[in-house]
Specification:
Spore Coat Polysaccharide Biosynthesis Protein SpsA, Chain A; seven-stranded mixed sheet; 7 strands; globular
Length: 258
């Protein structure tokens, strides 16, 4: 790793929606020596997000209206791949997750130990003590336990917005077929598992404050039901009961068509 030419190109993507009050804080704490490019995708913000992003000199892509969190990620990953990223790290610009941990979250990928790394709020310490509502903690534990059974893994959390991907993962899974909403996060994990990529996790602290985005109770219930649907269709696909092209490897499909 001493030869700079062998270092991977690390691109941080920020899916932004009305993050004007926290974007600068997030960007200033990014370890610039570990990041080659920062891409911000604005999903129809109505505050100062774009003004701040321009002041910071970020690479900016703008949606003409609010299409949703999943749609924002689709643009983030497509543009990161187009920019030549070897590793893509999603960092929420709402300052909820610690940007200084980028070197730690990419390390398992750089070392060849993982293809995807999740930043878990539940791996160590108490998320409730850090401000996570108790009902959200219990729902997280229940859904994570169910996902571990379905995916045959033993992760401490799946519902984190702090994630790193090796380029090959995003080139292989059909993420553009996923939802434009919040359940995109779980759909792409199901695709990663179906494609047999290796997932690792690191412990990350989190912050809960008014400016940090957080779904309310009703939205969380809808989100939970949609996760159950993802697990249902994933199970049918894995058992061959009902195949879904959403879980097909794009590379495998390309090979079959040649």
């Amino acid at each position: 790793m001493s030869d700079a030419r062998t270092l991977p190109k690390v691109v941080v993507v920020m899916p932004a929606y009305n993050a004007g009050r926290t974007l600068r804080l997030t960007y200033e704490e990014l370890p610039k020596d570990a990041v080659n490019l920062v891409i911000l995708v604005d999903d129809g913000s109505t505050d100062t997000t774009l003004d701040v992003a321009r002041q910071l000199g970020l690479e900016i892509f703008v949606h003409n209206r609010n299409y949703g969190y999943g749609a924002n990620q689709k643009t983030c990953y497509a543009e990161a791949l187009r920019a030549g990223a070897d590793i893509v790290v999603m960092v929420h610009p709402d300052y909820q997750y610690d940007p200084r941990l980028v070197p730690r979250i990419i390390e398992p990928i750089v070392e060849g130990e993982a293809d995807v790394v999740l930043g878990s709020r539940l791996k160590s310490g108490s998320a409730v003590a850090q401000g996570m509502p108790w009902w959200k903690y219990l729902a997280n534990r229940f859904l994570t336990g169910l996902e571990n059974r379905v995916f045959r893994l033993s992760l401490s959390e799946y519902h984190t917005g702090y994630r790193a991907f090796r380029r090959e993962v995003l080139e292989t899974v059909n993420f553009v077929a996923n939802s434009d909403g919040f359940v995109f996060d779980q759909e792409i994990i199901a695709q990663v598992v179906a494609a047999r990529f290796k997932i690792a996790e690191i412990a990350v602290p989190t912050r809960y404050f008014p400016e940090a985005s957080s779904a309310g109770f009703l939205a969380s219930v809808v989100y939970g039901l949609r996760i159950l649907a993802v697990l249902f269709w994933f199970t049918l696909n894995q058992r061959g009961v009902r195949r879904s092209r959403r879980f097909d490897s794009l590379r495998a499909r390309y090979t079959r068509l040649r």
